[in-house]
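Teaching assistant here, posting this on the class forum so everyone can see the example we discussed in section. The complex has two components, and the goal was to see what a joint structure prediction looks like when all of them are supplied at once.
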Amino acid sequence: MVIKDIATWELGEVVFSRDQSTITLITRIGFHMYGLNGEQICEGELLPSSNNQLGAHWVDGESLLFAVSSKADGELMISIQKLQPTMDPLLLVTESFIIPFQNGEFCFSPVSFHAAFFYGTKAVVLNVRDSKVLFHGDGVQSYYSPGHFSPDGCFFACRTSGGSICILEKTSRSYVPRSNLTPQLSWDKFSWSPTSTSILCWDRNGIQLLHPDNCYGLTFTRPPYREHLVAYTVDQTHIATAHQRNTVITFTSLSDATQQTVTINIPIRDIKIVDSTIFVTDGTRLISWYLTTGGQAGSGCNTGRENKVFSVHTGEPFALSNNCSQIGFTIKQTVFLYDIKTQKVLGDFMADGHIYHIQFSSDGSLMWSVVENTNGKGFKCYCMELEREQNPCFANMTIVDLKDDWSLDSLFRSPQECRIIGNGSEWVSDPRGNILWLPPNWRVGRGWSARWDGNFLTLLGGHHPEPIIIEFQL
Amino acid sequence: MRCVYSDSLIVDPLTFMQCQIQVPINVNPLFNTTSDCLRFVTEFFEVISQSAPHIYYSALLLAPPSSVVHRLYGQLCSPAARIVNGIPDSWDSCTASHGGITRVSHAAWSPCGKFIAVCFEGRIGIQDSTTLERVSDLRLPTGHMKAIPQLLAFSPDGHLLTCTYHPVIEPNLSVPFPNIFVHTHLYTD
């Protein structure tokens, strides 16, 4: 039941008074106090009125207090300000501390009177009462805001390299690293539970709950955000994967999951395996390596054989046909089909909107382009038959408007096959029904990060440290 | 229902469960098993709540091989799939997650720690703080206008919930101010 709808001038955080008779809206520059009947009680600005930064606010007894950092006469000052709604002045500075540091993003613990500042990739935690530095994070690990002290003042958590959350534990003399938590989904904000035992983090992709003590020694650093690329051998015994624009190809045996890696000195944009040859392109040339038995690159893997240098500048999205004779690429809203052997553009067409994805059919006779409508509402799929003997080569183009819940699987996989239907769906289904539930961090928006080859599904993406490979049994 | 916990402390079942989830492994075998079972249930709560047979089709397949549940019951798994690569060796620190296509703009803990209020597009979800299962939905009664909830705050006793929101500007309407809703909260200690 809604008991009051109060119009305000700005958005901000709301704090209740202890007796719950008032709420205070805290905005970027000030505060607005209201009774629960909607009547405004007072409003004002934090001190000083400019160049300040709010590090924390908390309720102590009947009072609302703020910890504010500001620069005065070249010195950094942290002041504790108490809101007195019925008195003049409204804000009373109860304590202030000169801090021997530069101003940086700032957070504060009202329990311990410790503060943390972020400078670039470094973090400093100090006791504001005596300016003693309790932690100086400037080593191999990077530290970034947001950072929050736990409600009991025993821990400090902040973002660290690779999207992890670093937990520091307060000891009698300093803060020491306790653990690195690696969320399953991406995140940009987090908060401690009231009991300081859990961390909730979230962003537009969802919410997740982390327990610092439930980390049984598992920590890993995420690779830089790059999409994975994937190619299967014809006999489906091996899979080759690589990070886009990386230089390492990993071969995984699909029978026992053993892996071998090969370093190739070009930034990889696509890979394909044709018969016993692996083709790699960086968007300007196509290079091939011979695969020995078992899917490993042959002895010539350090040199490779440069097959062709493209005579065009290729944009994204980008796709290599399965027989490696053609590439499809886009520049702005135009799709180009390029023949690698003749080094000629065979044809192009302008799509009506932003192009999200292009893909060749397995036999190379069709090319699909998924395009967002110019009004930003909905997608459509262009399906083009490729006529190699004709110019232009695009023939019999059909355009299909895509329904709201479309996915690549709904376009390109038959109902008789295993597929993921629906945007971000948690189910892999086949004619029997739902056959596998996918954890939240394995779900793929519209299937951009899912690649099928027969009954093998590979889930790809920067949020997975390595590709997830699943074999479905019919 | 109440639980007797270690030093004869009597606590409610939720607190008991939360304590168990947070206890490090390798304390003792019985505790390990209990802790691991609870971890299994919270990790796979979403699929188990939808379809119990997927304990055998999905959850056991996806449980880390080193987990007690997998070691005890892994042979009962009857999946239609085989994970070639991608199963973590052990549980990670993420005990529950709720992903979706709806944008999350803010979340706030209830003072008792049992619930989490989450701002989704156009509504507020009240989630269980152990499983992240949705307990209730609150809609913003903005009449003919759409609204984007932004920030949430519970009152100290957990009985009230505020939400700051911004009405979506629509044609033929003057620019509305941001507002605060104060909700009575249905879930109390």
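For the discussion questions: The longest strand of chain B covers residues 147-154. Residues 29-43 of chain B form the longest helix (15 residues). Think about how each of these relates to the inputs above.
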